[in-house]
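Field reference: sequence -> structure
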Amino acid sequence: MIRRSIRDEERWVSNRIQRQRELRHFKAELRLPKSLTLINPSAIAVSQITLLRFALLSPNKRKICRFISIALPNQQTVDYPSFKLVIVGDGGTGKTTFVKRHLTGEFEKKYEPTIGVEVHPLDFFTNCGKIRFYCWDTAGQEKFGGLRDGYYIHGQCAIIMFDVTARLTYKNVPTWHRDLCRVCENIPIVLCGNKVDVKNRQVKAKQVTFHRKKNLQYYEISAKSNYNFEKPFLYLARKLAGDPNLHFVESPALAPPEVHIDLAAQQQHEAELAAAASQPLPDDDDDAFE
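Structure field:
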């Protein structure tokens, strides 16, 4: 038993030395920043955001992705920039539908609570090249809550989702945000209010203030009508690339909308959101529901 442990230790040391040599070789060949650490995986995960800018514009795109795969051997990689996107929010807010709508072009009519996590690769084609989001769909139910933190590790961007027809899902947004920031720290985050096609909305424009307090991007979306469905991904791609002019040249195929959103009513609501943004922030989000 002792001999086996010694051999395992020697093998581990040998592999680590070889890995460090490969990383140094890639780093020198690609002229990557000297500040890029080769030891701390979490630091390399953060540096991948910086590497996206190199990869999108560099002829060494595949080699840069290879560098990332060596630095983070447990992370899925492809021959183009890829990022871990964590989607969180209360159960029933439409997280799984949001992801599967893009992948399959079909709206999930039957809701089933997600057990654990599902990872879905979602590709986008931009004017700078192809990128991939690995969408981590985590469980929103509190009874699965003990598993959440492990899924946040190495998260590079996030979407927090709530249901505009259910006040409680919005009131729980600060908790989701706090959980994310505790593990992922400073990553780009989009807040999404889903189901805006439903007329009986409970979360009004003046009540949506959390994104202003935390400097998040906010979009209202609808899975059934495809309304604003690509905007969260475009915002995150621009933030990750550091390029406000990045745009999609192709969109994933989506099924025809099952409902047609009242565009006039939604435009009115968007105007109310803009007007509310000019008002002073309340001291507490709960005050908005009184």
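Note: The longest strand covers residues 117-126.
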